[in-house]
């Protein structure tokens, strides 16, 4: 997949396009991308995604902006895995936000990307004041010679699949429900970096996975698997949070204790798959109490994996 950081002044070839933030790449997004790729193959044109960085809500109301489900790297890897040929990551600025719906279509879609066919979600809005909608796109298509279609909502057990619904499930600790909406377990990827070696001191060495995002959609202690180290998904126990027992006001960290694994993995890029939440993060009265709880968490995680294999 080719990744571009700007929309060209003039397209070099026509495209089949979809537009959106694609945070989390849930089942609704996947259905749209399947349709995109099928239409692109039918027309013999590149399947193209336009997405935005930062998320529009991060620009206009950073304090109220939701926690991201995926980092940009994770999002691009997921788009690539869905068969997308090109992704345009547009810098979302006040200048871009002030483009009228007509200019958004004329300058970016028609001139810049040479759209032949556009697929959007039925609730997608674009242009200044979110003034553009599917009807405006259809009208422009008749004028400029492109076709468009709206993807309807995907539901799981009667619930509309959305990034917000995934966030709500993660915040509530219902990882199994989040996985149903995503079509896979929720993941966080990152490089293994040096930590403060507290776990090692207690006999539970952890891999400290670098976090690039400011806000986490979930916190607590989890049963996880880790991929990217060899061909297996390695089981382990993870803590994601600010470790209140050690100090106040610390930045969130993701620490994973892998079972029956003892190799030097510093610098490796891994993906942590969150399967089940064991408990909330909490502050303990002493480090000894924390050590006892870590041992209990590891035993509970092993019991969870044992129940899967015997289920």
Describe the protein's architecture and organization.
The chain contains ten helices and 14 strands. The protein is an alpha/beta fold and 311 residues long. It has two domains: 155 residues, Rossmann fold, CATH 3.40.50; 126 residues, Beta Barrel (Elongation Factor Tu (Ef-tu), domain 3), CATH 2.40.30. The longest helix has 24 residues. The protein is elongated. The mean pLDDT is 89.
Topology:
Layout: E1 2-4, E2 15-19, H1 27-43, E3 47-53, H2 56-60, H3 72-81, E4 86-91, H4 94-97, H5 101-112, E5 115-121, H6 134-144, E6 147-151, E7 155-156, E8 159-160, H7 163-171, H8 175-182, E9 186-193, H9 198-201, E10 207-209, E11 220-227, E12 234-241, E13 253-258, E14 269-279, H10 287-310
Parallel strand pairs: 1-4, 2-3, 2-5, 3-4, 5-6
Antiparallel strand pairs: 7-8, 9-10, 9-14, 10-13, 11-12, 11-14, 12-13
Helix pairs in contact: 5-6, 7-8
Structural descriptors:
311 residues; alpha/beta; Rossmann fold; Elongation Factor Tu (Ef-tu), domain 3; six-stranded parallel β-sheet; six-stranded antiparallel beta barrel; 10 helices; 14 strands; 33% helix; 26% strand
CATH class of the largest domain: Alpha Beta
Contiguous low-pLDDT stretches (5 residues minimum) are none
Shape: elongated
SSE run: EEHEHHEHHEHEEEHHEHEEEEEH
Q: How is the largest sheet built, in terms of strand order?
A: 1-4-3-2-5-6
- Backbone structural class: alpha/beta
Q: Tell how many strands the DSSP assignment holds.
A: 14
What CATH architecture of the largest domain would you give?
Answer: 3-Layer(aba) Sandwich
Number of domains: 2
């Amino acid at each position: 997949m080719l990744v571009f950081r700007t929309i060209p002044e003039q397209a070099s070839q026509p495209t089949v396009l979809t537009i959106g933030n694609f945070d989390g790449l849930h089942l609704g997004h996947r259905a749209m991308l399947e349709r995109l790729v099928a239409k692109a193959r039918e027309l013999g044109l590149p399947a193209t995604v336009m997405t935005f960085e930062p998320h529009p809500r991060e620009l206009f109301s950073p304090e109220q902006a939701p926690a991201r489900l995926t980092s940009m790297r994770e999002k691009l890897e997921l788009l690539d895995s869905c068969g997308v040929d090109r992704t345009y990551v547009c810098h979302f600025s006040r200048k871009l936000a002030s483009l009228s719906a007509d200019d958004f279509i004329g300058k970016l879609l028609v001139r810049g990307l040479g759209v032949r066919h556009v697929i959007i979600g039925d609730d997608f809005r674009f242009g200044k004041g979110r003034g553009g909608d599917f009807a405006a796109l259809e009208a422009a298509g008749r004028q400029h010679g492109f076709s468009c279609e709206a993807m309807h909502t995907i539901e799981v057990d009667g619930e509309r699949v959305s990034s917000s619904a995934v966030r709500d499930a993660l915040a509530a600790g219902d990882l199994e429900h989040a996985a149903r909406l995503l079509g896979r377990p929720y993941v966080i990827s990152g490089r293994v970096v040096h930590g403060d070696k507290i776990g090692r001191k207690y006999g539970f060495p952890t891999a400290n996975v670098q976090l690039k995002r400011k806000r986490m959609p979930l916190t607590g202690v989890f049963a996880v698997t880790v991929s990217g180290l060899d061909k297996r998904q390695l089981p382990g126990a993870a803590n994601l949070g600010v470790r209140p027992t050690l100090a106040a006001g610390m930045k969130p960290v993701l620490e994973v204790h892998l079972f029956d694994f003892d190799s030097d993995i510093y610098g490796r890029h891994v993906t942590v798959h969150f399967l089940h939440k064991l408990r909330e993060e909490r502050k303990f009265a002493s480090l000894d109490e924390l050590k006892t709880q870590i041992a209990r968490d590891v035993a509970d995680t092993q019991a969870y994996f044992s129940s899967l294999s015997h289920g």
